[in-house]
Amino acid sequence: MLNYIWVGMILVGVLWGLVTGRMEQVTEAVISSSEEGVKLTILLAGVMCLWSGLMKIAQKSGLVNAITKASRDIFKGLFTDIPENHPAIGAIVLSFAANFLGLGNAATPLGIKAMESLQTLNDKKDTATDDMILFMVINASCLQLIPTNVIALRDAAGSKDAAGILPHVWISSLISTVAAILFYFIFKSFEKRRDPA
Amino acid sequence: MTIIMSWLSKAAIPGLIIIILIFGIIKKVPVFDTFLEGAREGLETTIRIFPVLVGIMLGIEILSKSGALDMIVLLFRPLANFIKIPEEILPMAIIRPISGSASLGLLSKQLKEYGPDSLIGRTLSVLMGSTETIFYTITVYYGAIGVKKTRYTLWVALIAGLAGLISAVVVCRILQ
Fold this sequence. Notes:
The complex is a heterodimer of chains A (197) and B (176). With 197 residues, chain A is mainly alpha-helical. Helix content of chain A is 74%, strand content 0%. Chain A has helices at residues 2-19, 23-60, 63-71, 87-100, 104-119, 130-141, 148-156, 166-194. The relative contact order of chain A is 0.07. Chain B starts with a helix and ends with a helix. Chains A and B meet through α1, α2, α5, α6 and α7 of A and α1, α2, α3, α6 and α7 of B.
């Protein structure tokens, strides 16, 4: 799937550049993209190390387990393949919390930590599990309390009420989160019906 | 209410770090050694993500710098008109799932153009705040753990994004 999307993006871009005579910009994009990749990686490396280190402490001290125990009931009906008291729940909760509080650069490392934790429960390492998909789609629907960058940009553009859109954001992301969970279950049951394992 | 929440958002990171460290000390964990151990693993994860980032950036940059992204926006215009999504929202709706930095740049530009407190400006803000860079997130998260078959992840994520788009438009129109 991702293979096709990736090739599609490049193919469409290059062909469109060819048709519209923007080959120079395409060449420039090829070079600048690898630089962008390095920049992003370096930006990510620091926070990745920071949060992995902190998470390790939280794991060894039993904090992740405590969070797992406290929150397992919330996700009981959702993440169905995680055994009772498995630390994956704790990792998922922390990742959602980081997203929810809008801690942008903490959210990615914690999200990847949660995925690594889910991967330990996976029998087929190259295929996504149901729980991984659910985690990803809830992530993608972006339940967020304060979208700080949006408010900052509104303020910079001279808004009289930069934070006034917050209730709208909450309602809207709640709706998309509900849609994500709903359609996850729909797709899941469809797949099961198509090839019952 | 908003003040409490924005304070909570600002205090969350320092607060979380303090809680983790104090809990660690109480439970007699060698905190600094443990931190280093985890940080080293974080570096390994970063190295694993690096090729994924270079690859996804290649796709995104070629698509946007060639002007193909603008062409795609034009292609979707009839569909947007059909489901009554304002035309001005369309570029954001399409760029948002693909690139976080490009959509922030677009938001900044469009807020100045339409005014941040206009209906269009508010809808754009809500759309930006309530949706996520789906393609990037899916590629990086799955890439980090080596999962290749993502099954129906993308479909559900896209449907959730579409639900976010429609609700942003509707909510902004109803709640002034």
